[in-house]
Design the sequence.
């Protein structure tokens, strides 16, 4: 590991990167830095007005064109429409997410956290895969350590809903998705690689949207006292986007939340389980009606 920062990004001139949820937080910083490195950045957001304001905030002498497109990960029809509108892309950054929110369902009837954080990105990746030339980077979390995949009740319909365990399940799903995606890419002889990154504990708007006023106060206080900046959190994603890495690498701070950026050992035994990764993939295919397209 080294003290790598966004200043170490190579030129992305002539390359196209899609960043989901790039209207704020880690996604906004990721999009800004990649645009500054010369990339054409497509900001994929549910609220295009917020996306337009984000695009206006991305400035710099080397900034290239930033395009805003509508994408609602809680609606598979929107995911399909977005994917149909993309001709080619070098890098897909699955960044968008929600955290520890009250129980709700997506348009397609999925529990909102697994639906947004995993199933929406699962469908998006598979639909775009024939058009991706370089890599898929999915943003997970250290909270995957509390996650358990319940293949019989992925959407919390048969058990009492618990917001944090549901979040942990969705973040564990990100790692298992990447593991199985890389296995399939390797088997297909594809040069595309799949990677995962986690930001540590960075202050973003996620902590203010738990839907629980006491929980929100707790996390906002934590942001002030302990959290790193969105720039530090996004550094982990940018490293995964830019560096020469083996497939299925997991990138994060050396000391879980702080320290130099690079491959991290903080991956739970459950996140290394190939059987669960394959089973989750097959279930996700059934739920989203999408599959590996190479």
Sequence:
């Amino acid at each position: 590991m080294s003290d790598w920062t966004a200043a170490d990004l190579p030129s992305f001139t002539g390359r196209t990167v899609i960043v989901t949820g790039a209207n704020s937080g880690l996604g906004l910083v990721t999009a800004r830095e990649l645009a500054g490195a010369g990339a054409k950045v497509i900001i994929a957001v549910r609220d295009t007005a917020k996306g337009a304001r984000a695009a206006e905030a991305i400035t710099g002498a080397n900034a290239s064109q930033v395009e805003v497109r509508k994408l609602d990960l809680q609606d598979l029809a929107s995911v399909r429409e977005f994917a149909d509108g993309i001709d080619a892309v070098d890098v897909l950054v699955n960044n968008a997410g929600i955290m520890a929110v009250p129980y709700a369902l997506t348009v397609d009837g999925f529990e909102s956290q697994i639906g947004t954080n995993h199933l929406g990105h699962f469908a998006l990746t598979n639909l775009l895969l024939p058009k991706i030339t370089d890599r898929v980077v999915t943003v997970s979390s250290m909270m995957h350590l509390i996650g358990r995949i319940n293949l019989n009740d992925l959407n919390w319909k048969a058990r009492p809903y618990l917001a944090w365990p549901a979040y942990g399940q969705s973040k564990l799903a990100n790692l298992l998705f990447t593991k199985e995606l890389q296995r399939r890419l390797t088997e297909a002889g594809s040069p595309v690689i799949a990677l995962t990154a986690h930001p540590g504990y960075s202050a973003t708007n996620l902590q203010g949207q738990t839907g629980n006023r006491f929980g929100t106060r707790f996390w906002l206080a934590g942001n002030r006292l302990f959290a790193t900046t969105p720039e530090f959190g996004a550094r982990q994603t940018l490293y995964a986007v830019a560096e020469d890495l083996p497939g299925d690498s997991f990138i994060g701070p050396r000391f879980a939340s702080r320290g130099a950026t690079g491959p991290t050992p903080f991956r739970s035994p459950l996140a290394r389980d190939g059987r669960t990764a394959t089973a989750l993939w097959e279930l996700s295919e059934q739920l989203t009606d999408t599959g590996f397209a190479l």
In short: The chain is about 40% helix and 15% strand. Residues 101 and 211 are 6 Å apart (CA to CA).
